Amino acid sequence: MEFAELIKTPRADNVVLHRPFHLAVEGTLCLTGHHLIFSSRRQDNAEELWLLHSNIDSIDKRFVGSLGTIVIKCKDLRIIQLDIPGMEECLNIASSIEALSTLDSVTLMYPFFYRPMFEVLEDGWSSFLLEQEFELLSSVTNEWRLSCVNKEFSVCPSYPPVVIVPKSIDDDALRKVALFRHGGRFPVLSYYHKKNGMAMLRSSQPLTGTNGRRCKEDEKLVNATLRSGRRGFVIDTRPLTVAQQARAKGGGFEQEVHYPQWRRIHKYIERFNILQESFIKLVEACNDQSHNMDRWLSKLEASNWLTHIKELLTAACLAAQCIDREGASVLVHGSEGTDSTLQVTSLAQIILDPRCRTIRGFEALIVREWLQAGHPFQQRCAQSAYSNSKQKWEAPVFLLFLECVWQIHRQFPCSFEFNEQFLIMLFEHAYASQFGTFLGNNENERAKLKLPQKTMSLWSWVNRPEELSRFQNPLYEANSLVIWPSVAPQSLQLWEGVFLRWNRPSRFLEEAEEERIHIIKYNKELQARVNTLRRRLAQLQAQDGEVQEEQ
Amino acid sequence: FHAVLLLQVENVKLLDRYANRKAASGTLYLTATHLIYVDASAEVRKETWILHHHISSVEKLPLTTAGYPLLIHCKNFHVAHFVIGQERDCHDVFTSLLKLSQPVKPEELYAFSYNPKMSKENREMGWKLIDLRLDYQRMGIPNDSWEITDLNKDYEVCSTYPPEIVVPRAATKAVVMGSSRFRSRGRIPVLSYLYKENNAALCRCSQPLAGFSARCLEDEQMLQAIREANPGCPFMYVVDTRPKLNAMANRAAGKGYENEDNYENIRFKFIGIENIHVMRSSLQKLLEVCEMKSPSMSDFLTGLENSGWLRHIKAVMDAGVFLAKAVKEERASVLVHCSDGWDRTAQVCSLASLLLDPFYRTFKGFMVLIEKEWIAMGHKFSHRCGHLDGDPKEVSPVFTQFVECVWQLMQQFPCSFEFSERFLLEIHDHVYSCQFGNFLGTCHKEREELRIFEKTHSLWPFLLQRKQELRNPLYRGFTAYKELQPNTLPFSFQFWCGMYNRFDKGMHPKQCVLDQLLGCLSQKVTLEDNASHLENKLPILDGPLPSEGCTSPKAGAAAAQAPTPPEDCAEGAAPVLSNGPSLGHQKHKESPAQPRDL
């Protein structure tokens, strides 16, 4: 297919761009296969706006006489308005944008066409391999092994080719366990707590069905992670009733009789369409400026967004507590094990593992616990909060995770190497990107699409020093401790950086950030200078001493 | 100063409302001024100090297995839940606290016994620190249009105004006196702030005694004089900060609001801020929400909404923004009043001044603002804060709301205030502490009668001494921002956890950016001194310094490898971060100088 066929009017002049908190600008609008480009004609301050078509969530058009207006709502929650003279031009442009922003073939997406303008220092596609992770693990314990049982994606289509499992369980057993778990997602290692040797596993629900099927290998697998005489906890992210109902459809949960050493805790985390609705309601509330205070608060409450945040953080704290405080191993799953399960396991690691609070460690966490673990990004992030289509696969699961990280970050502002911008950047790229990282729903699909060969990795770009410097938290000081966030409602806030980002002037907050960076940077420079001088003085004094001795 | 120990009770538990940690166990002491709790179970000695004046209520709760619970609510939103072993002890503490926390006579207030060991001269200097005349001078007053008059030196114009007031030069004594008879409690229109750039003035007064038809020529002349003092604008605003219904109801009592037909070229406007009773009950509801035991998010947000608190804060802010805009953008003078002109009027005039003039966002300026718009103009601190045993219906968080509005502004403009949230909390504490004379009584006349200038200390020098810890490290200086134009959409207002859940440390961020930055700033001077000292020393030994740039990252890396950290650096190291649950400092101090001996 040629993009040109979809672009009936590639260019329109005298277009006026409206954005909140900016003066309206007149300029020229151009459409390319992947971008909407607006450039102002003003000589003094030429301005260009580049918008990826894939970033467009919805588009509305209306006409007053022959002046058409297109309102574009983006997946990053920005709303812009374009006034286009000429009804035909406007209609053409609107229909082109509509078609180009809803391409159904992945291979037509921008990452397959994007050619980077920067020198690639490190190929992000191979920056975070599970083999490296395993090497680190092997230095502290030999109870685990790397299994290639899934190298053809035949045992579990949504798992990566290699996984970490207890050493005592062989590949044949894994194949059997896979048949006993939804989608073949047998329990694998998610996190190993070096401090006390406890493990966090994740999987999908066991397929016990109504007649209470069991699988000896499954029991053996999970028990292999327990210390002798110690109990483990199964954290099921569904309420008990839902888990019980799942049995009728062949699913189920670990029954006490077969897993006597495990205590099951049901910690309900909301999923799919409920989350998507919550997201839509919240964004609606944030964008409606006609609200009075009561209406705003009641809409904020009714969106339930912060409730989901609180529940999710509570569940993550629970998992972390079981591991760190109770000294118990934990198995986390919901139904499929691709959404709420990953939210819990990854947040628990943020709480427990200082490495996950560094930039590289956080990237590794996202690769390991989201991309390789088979969170279906393409389905979940196909549409954002402005879409009208009621498809049931979209859900802001990853955004919720990022916001929870932000909430913890806010409570421990010195314990993270990255800043808020880093989290916002990940949110943007998960929904629309020039990079191939978040394309596809699992490693299997990514391999078929040959993404590593055909697209650029987000990490190749982010990890370049000039980009990294934008994402560094000046206050960071490595903190090797477990960080327990407060989940009291008073401690949680709306994530303004995402939800109010386009609805309020940002100048004063940016200046505050500049000021913070400046203070810390200057302090560090001074410190370094004093140290250098002192060393120099010591050297000179030592030389002096030698000279005197020689004399 | 040795505090007299009135009562000592052993085996008292202090419950932590939020963390499910084991309750502390220790000893409770009552002195003449404080309740002091010393936690014996902690490894480090932990003390909780509660000033008797801060206590707003003491309740005995039903007996539990642990003992006899005593619940203490404080005006600074500290809630302490003690459990006492013996009923007799519990009762003793209860009755003592009831008596101690509700003094009857002003002389019993802490300020009259507070002795920070300061010379008489210094004490007197302290009272002279804030000179309102200087502030008027800053605005260019006296000038052709405005004068400072002592017409009120014997409180003949108004008993709740200060002796010196600023009125239009064109207003004769007859006009002033006439107007005072037509304004509730004689609170005539006086200048609050003059915006020098365009001569638009912010003035304040109380409601006119207009009833349904009464008018007063002198009052009309007074407004005309105010309007004509600003020749740049043909009209002036008269703003009634009450809801229209309340103002109308007042007409039946012979009060009310200005009839636009009687006054030349005024634009009359209502801004509905609710009265003190609505505000009191709103705060009550808010505090109930803050005290809920493990509320769900929905409980909290619904409670927050139902309390109406943020709605009221927004109303005050909206009014302040309206005034500032009228003055700056429309170049119009504004006369503001509510009923008596000492609550809502004080809130919005001080807020508008703060928005218009960066001076009021400095330490000194903020003190001036409070002295001018609140203390001098007769905000009844004593009644509103319940300093003495009195009518509970007079108590209302009017000043708290103003302080919160300032905090909300700090959230939107983090670099525009010289001081931090801590300065606000400190002032808020002392409005209730009665430790200093500033906030005693209801007006200037009463403070003179109480002889507070002879017998008590002023708060401001004590706060200025602590500038280093109360300052805002992000402040960009006086000239960086002029007028502030805050966003007043509902989502711009946040719940102020640091105020209403201030003593629930578990809810606050576990690492404090403010401390971190203050640490850097205090290190800065030491480091700069060290650097220049070393630089001076080096050339003597070595000749000119090799240009090892201090911005070079290599220098930093090399420094990190230095075998032994230099002592000075360790000394000045950034504050240690406390972490999560191990966070344990519980020591709450109410006052800068504490009686140490028990």
From TrEMBL, chain A:
The keyword Aminoacyl-tRNA synthetase does not apply. Residues 509-550 form a coiled coil. InterPro entries: Myotubularin (IPR030564), Myotubularin-like_Pase_dom (IPR010569), PH-GRAM_MTMR6-9 (IPR048994), PH-like_dom_sf (IPR011993), Prot-tyrosine_phosphatase-like (IPR029021). Keywords: Acetylation, Cell membrane, Cell projection, Coiled coil, Cytoplasm, Endoplasmic reticulum, Membrane. GO terms for molecular function: protein phosphatase binding. It is found in: Cell projection, Ruffle membrane; Cytoplasm, Perinuclear region; Endoplasmic reticulum. GO terms for biological process: negative regulation of autophagy; phosphatidylinositol dephosphorylation. It is a peripheral membrane protein. Belongs to the protein-tyrosine phosphatase family. Non-receptor class myotubularin subfamily. This is Myotubularin-related protein 9.
UniProtKB/TrEMBL annotation, chain B:
Residues 553-562 have a biased composition (Low complexity). SMART domains: PTPc_motif. It holds the Pfam family Myotub-related. Substrate binds at N275, I276, C338, S339, D340, G341, W342, D343, R344. Keywords: Hydrolase, Lipid metabolism. CDD domains: PTP-MTMR8 (cd14584). Gene3D superfamilies: Pleckstrin-homology domain (PH domain)/Phosphotyrosine-binding domain (PTB). GO terms for biological process: phosphatidylinositol dephosphorylation. Residues 549-598 are annotated as: Disordered. One of its GO terms (molecular function) is phosphatidylinositol-3-phosphate phosphatase activity. This is MTMR8 protein. It comes from Sylvia atricapilla. The gene is Mtmr8.
